[in-house]
Automatic annotation (TrEMBL):
KW DNA damage (keyword) present: yes
Source organism per UniProt: Pelomonas aquatica
A GO BP annotation: DNA repair
Name of the molecule in the record: DNA polymerase Y family protein
Keywords noted in UniProt: DNA damage
The UniProt record lists the keyword DNA damage: yes
Listed InterPro entries: DNA/RNA_pol_sf, SulA_CellDiv_inhibitor
Length: 332
């Protein structure tokens, strides 16, 4: 087996762990949570993506597109070993598994870190020193959990994982750390939910045409104020571009007034559609997909700024009179 352990950066939002797991599901169906990391068994996917290095690069590119910042990562034949190596990126990542694990400090394995004080008094500072202690005495002193974790990390005992699956629809909530009184400030927190959405869409190879952002008003609001509010963001075509969705949401929030301070956000997407990855032409031109997407993104923001029906497009109309062969309709 070939396991890849992915850790989020320490300064990343807590919800990024879900997004990272969903993103990994777009590369392999064997993804699980292991303590603070996401582990993926990718042995069946290596050939498809061109090897370990190419798969890592594609995963990094997908994370960047989804607005996620990857932390430490490591490869190993077992999931616990990959997690231990990811926790100690300064140690060698090449060589035999036993030699690499023997050099790691006790903190690399949570089961050993829990007994660090006692093990230090016994003269153990590294996993290799711990492994050389008498097993019956270790089991009596620290219980069977420590030996089981050691054996699983070194590949002497099989591991069991609860595989993650994608939800049928995207619906995420976020409790705000403080009461937000101005709608534009909500964008900072909504971007955490947008990153989860983009990772969810990447795993489904899909995009959205519309999403809904709702907020719950604080319990201390006035009696005549509703419990919350919401707005709908619609796009001209199917997309999962984080930057495009974030800019469009910012335009909507800039024109929204909160009736009371908000304490919770909820982002949902009902219109999830398959996203066909278009191939760009050799030479840029009017039919270039990238140019069309850029134009649509600009027109979407103009529609929000100018109001409904202010942006129009001309469409051909069957009529024998030249001055009636084109009619203007609201875009899109």
């Amino acid at each position: 087996m070939r396991w890849l352990a992915l850790c989020r950066r320490p300064d990343a939002a807590a919800g990024d762990s879900d997004a990272l797991a969903w993103l990994a599901l777009s590369f392999t169906p064997r993804v699980a949570r292991l303590e603070e990391a996401v582990v993926a068994e990718v042995s069946a996917s290596l050939r498809l993506f061109g090897g370990a290095r190419a798969l890592r690069q594609k995963l990094q590119a997908a994370a960047t597109q989804a607005g996620l910042a990857l932390g430490a990562a490591a490869w190993a034949p077992t999931a616990l070993a990959a997690l231990a190596l990811a926790r100690c990126p300064q140690h060698p990542q090449q060589g035999r598994l036993a030699e690499r694990l023997d050099a790691l400090p006790l903190a690399a394995l949570s089961a050993a870190q829990a007994h660090h004080a006692m093990l230090a008094r016994l003269g153990c500072q590294r996993l290799g020193e711990l492994r050389r202690l008498p097993r019956p005495a270790l089991a009596r002193r620290f219980g069977p959990g420590l030996l089981a974790a050691l054996d699983q990390a070194y590949g002497d005992l099989p591991e069991a994982h609860a595989w993650l699956t994608l939800p049928e629809r995207f619906d995420a909530r976020l409790e705000l750390p403080w009461r937000v009184e101005h709608a534009p400030v909500l964008l900072h927190f909504a971007e955490q939910l947008l990153r989860q959405l983009c990772a969810f869409l990447a795993a489904r190879h899909a995009g959205v045409r519309a999403l809904r952002l709702a907020w719950q008003h604080d319990a201390m609001r006035a009696r005549d104020v509703a419990g919350g509010g919401e707005l709908t963001v619609a796009t001209a075509d199917t997309t999962r571009d984080l930057r495009r969705l974030s800019r469009l949401l910012a335009e909507h929030l800039a024109r929204t007034t909160l009736a009371a301070p908000a304490g919770e956000l909820r982002l949902s997407a009902d219109s999830v559609l398959p996203l066909e990855e278009g191939s760009a032409g050799l030479l840029p031109g009017p039919a270039d997909p990238q140019e069309r997407t850029t134009t649509n993104a600009l027109l979407e923001r103009l529609c929000v700024r100018l109001g409904a029906g202010r942006v129009r497009e001309g469409r051909l109309h069957e009529d024998h009179r030249l001055d009636h062969m084109q009619r203007w309709h609201p875009w899109p």
